[in-house]
Amino acid sequence: MTGERxxxxxxxxxxxxxxxxxxxxxxxxTTHALQRLRDDPACxxxxxxxxxxxxxxxxxxxxxxxxxxDVAAPLHGRGARPRVAILREQGVNGQVExxxxxxxxxxxxxxxxxxxxxxxxxxxxxxxxxVACGGFSFGDVLGAGEGWAKSVLYNxxxxxxxxxxxxxxxxxxxxxxxxxxxxxxxxELIPGAEHWPRFVQNRSERFEARVALVQVQESxxxxxxxxxxxxxxxxxxxxxxxxxxxxxxELEALERTGLVSARYVDHHGAVAERYPRNPxxxxxxxxxxxxxxGRVTLMMPHPERSFRSVQLSWHPDGWGEDSPWMRMFRxxxxxxx
Length: 337
Fold this sequence. Notes:
Elements: E1 5-10, E2 13-19, H1 20-38, H2 41-51, H3 73-76, E3 83-88, H4 95-105, E4 108-113, H5 114-118, E5 129-132, H6 144-153, H7 156-167, E6 172-176, H8 178-184, E7 198-200, E8 208-216, E9 231-238, E10 242-244, H9 248-256, E11 260-264, E12 286-290, E13 296-299, H10 326-336
Parallel strand pairs: 3-4, 3-5, 5-6, 6-13
Antiparallel strand pairs: 1-2, 7-10, 8-9, 8-11, 11-12, 12-13
Helix pairs in contact: 1-2, 4-10, 6-8
């Protein structure tokens, strides 16, 4: 094979030659036809076209900081391990990886089920941070995260507890996947979240499990502090990850106030609008948002499934034990003091 041309020769005579893209088109023809019947046809066409793009440079990474640097290192000698609530609901399965990431950053990770809060067995006022985890809450169907949010909004005790937590100036909150969808539905309780979108079914009409390329934006997000400009692979696993602003004016307000914290990008670094580089079909590649004060950050992909280099199906040679996503969790430890 020379460049993009595949050649078969014997005895100095060329027996067959074809462009790689033409052979890939033939190989993928049946898959493409089945995908058009099963999924959103336009998404199927866009993915098929991406497979045939000979100019695609593939996954890559840009890391404008040292991933091995532990920005929280000066705090570890004090012996204190701030408590972070690893919040889950029925069906959530991402809590173990999330706890592991925060434990590595120097936290005491505490397993908190929604039933613990609703029954007053656990109170949020004892925590420096709260994380709403992802992974198939309520079977990951019919707005599962929104259903989770309603167990807070329609329970007076839980509503008051969450509102008090968000009102404190010494806390941080992270929402991932179903937790992102859940917290976006609590926007009325969260200061500085008035322009947040809701998250609805992927444009592909399918659960998306893949590695995506994303770029961290300049934003107030305290968890993403010092990471702007980073272009990184991350694990994606969601069925309802498409941001849906309530109005076009709300989308413009979200952009104008700088609350978009990260976007899906294609392999050339441009904001991804087409599938599968934008796996959910979210407008303008939006994959993470924050509040005006940066204390609450939501994202649909899974940093807790990407904080160790070995977790990623692809990463550049030379990455050590910690991937660049570990910086998020260490930033949280700095916030907790």
